[in-house]
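Standup notes
- DV: blocked on the single-chain target, sequence here:
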Amino acid sequence: MAIKIVVDSSIDLNDEILKTLDVEVVPLTVSFGDDSYLDRVELTPEEFYERMGREKELPKTAQPAPGRFLEIFEKHGKNGDKILCLCLSSKLSGTYNSAILAKSMTDYDIEVIDTQSGSAGIGILTYLANKWVNLGKSFSEVADEVRAYAEKLSVYALLDTVENAVKGGRLSPLKGALATILNLKIVCQVNQGRVELFDKIRGAKLAYKKLLTLFEEKAKGRSIPVIGIAHVANEKGAQMLKELLQKVHKDAEIFITTMGATIGTYAGPGGIVLAF
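- DV (later): unblocked, structure below
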């Protein structure tokens, strides 16, 4: 009997790290018009961004069908495993509801958690959950630890360009052009599972310093074992942010990873997600 961790493909975690974890990933579906792909299975993040750059309209993502979760739950449940399923915020996707429905179709020991997060936020929760399992914590203890950590997790997104906001109809072309001319960078935060506009900063350097300031404010008095940085074709910006963070918080493990399609669709080219 073991504890099996299941997570959806909105997770952003360095591939080298993910391969070392005993985790099963359930893919969302990504669609460009009539063409649909299983996220990270039939379409890599790099292929996704290359095609997204050529399209006039944003791709769409859809939650996994309950049957996909059920198949995995059955596979591990039959082995006597207890299953901990971590899902993208229910405010952003129906993935959590699909997993809950799949759970209702079985009698196995399954905990489905709405992480109220996404991207590097789920990456951190998955990484820590695996660590707690390896430390010998019980199933209920690990589930409680994940829920408690999810409540205090901070997640911010920095939009380097408003290109995808214009494509998605969230910003008019005129306002998008003005934001580009003024070199405005948009900072968003995840608040109780929803993505909200937090600030507008003029210039990339000031925007990264803003993220650092937010980190210092939120991290004060807290133990921060892991910091996650996900990016859309912006390795340089991710490394710059990592170096800024290391100067003020040397003890945390910091991972950098390419952002997947689920959150990357909205972050757009150059986008950064910071989670801690």
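- Follow-up: The domain at 155-275 is CATH 3.30.1180.10 (Hypothetical Protein Tm841; Chain: A;domain 3).
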